[in-house]
Amino acid sequence: MLQGANLVAQSTSWSIGLNGFADNREYKSQLQPPESLLGTQLVPEFHLVKDTIHTFGVGFSMLSEFGHTKLIADFDFQLYYRYRGQNFNFTFGSFSKNDIYACSPKAIYHDVLTYYNPNIQGLLWNYHKGGGSQSVYLDWTGRKSETTRETFIMGTFGTYSRGLFFLKNHIYMYHYASANVPDPNSPLRDNGVAYLSVGANLNGAFYVDSLSLSVGGMQSYQRTRGVTDWETPLGLLFEVKIQHRGFGVTNTLYVGQGHKLDWGDPFYQLKRYNRLDIYFNPLLFESVRAMFGISLHFAEQKIHHQQQFFLKVLFNSDNFHKPDTKNHFFR
């Protein structure tokens, strides 16, 4: 009887995702080069699930970049264990980094990372209850060897909402250590950020589907050990997001001191920067989503423009745990 119960409690599921991107960056900037980025990511996964709580997942993320000399430009193996409890989730191994990117402003994680750095290798812990959620993660980005530096990111992010109002935070530290053969011209560095924002969701107000307003403070910190003291620039982010019937507008204004974050958008090295995103979703279904977008970057006393198209397709078995279907194309 016990063996039969265990067999009933065990199941399998599968998913296969396709992420397509076409990103044309018409920049005339000292900070970022003009370039066109096009490609598709194939992400198949197979899961063994026990009692809907314990999941063993295996799969891969394969990037085919248009115009690349190789058919497969990048390949990342996925292998992880996930625990899903009532208030507590835990994942360990190599798995998708989408949850971290979706909750992070571009000042912290540059949008190109979703194309070329899709996975985390480490752990993600989350506690959620009521209107609050807080996560802790460790991403091991470099195993120390004769030629590879030891590097990792350790951070936490979360959100708390009550009624119309919300509070968000994100803190991380990037440790850039040395290889087995240290390079005297490139000493150990510490690089990180602390971000806190408050805002309001006015969904349904002013005859639009969703409207949110927020203001946030961001302080980064960096030092080169034995060479420089701590640098701690500080600035403010003001953001407005509006969506209605598949159309959306997001405007983000930054004012403050320039930041030099290894993983952040280089435009935030400026003391003043404004980004305006205008986008349309021609397809917005549970399994298929598409978006056309135009971004205007007001920086360096110029207007840089960017055109984007994204396609996300996800097919899965009936018992697969459905992901969040919110629009995270423009986070």
Question: What is the secondary structure topology, with strand pairs?
Answer:
Elements lengths: L1 H8 E17 L8 E16 L3 E12 L8 E11 L3 E9 L1 H5 L10 H4 L2 E11 L2 E11 L8 E12 L2 E12 L12 E13 L8 E15 L9 E11 L2 E10 L15 E13 L3 E12 L2 E15 L15
Antiparallel strand pairs: 1-2, 1-16, 2-3, 3-4, 4-5, 5-6, 6-7, 7-8, 8-9, 9-10, 10-11, 11-12, 12-13, 13-14, 14-15, 15-16
Overall morphology:
globular
* Low-pLDDT residue intervals, each spanning 5 or more residues: 1-7
Helix content: under 10%
Task: Tell how many strands the DSSP assignment holds.
Answer: 16
Name of the CATH class: Mainly Beta
- The CATH homologous superfamily is termed Porin
Q: What is the count of distinct domains?
A: 1
**Largest sheet: spatial strand order:** 1-2-3-4-5-6-7-8-9-10-11-12-13-14-15-16
Structural class: mainly beta
In sequence order, what are the helices and strands, one letter per element? HEEEEEHHEEEEEEEEEEE
Main sheet properties:
16 strands, antiparallel, barrel
Instruction: Report the average pLDDT across residues.
Output: 92
- What is the helix tally? 3
Query: Any idea of the CATH topology?
Result: Porin
What is the CA-atom radius of gyration, in angstroms?
A: 21 Å
Strand content: over 45%
User: CATH architecture, please?
Assistant: Beta Barrel
Question: Termini separation (Å)?
Answer: 50 Å
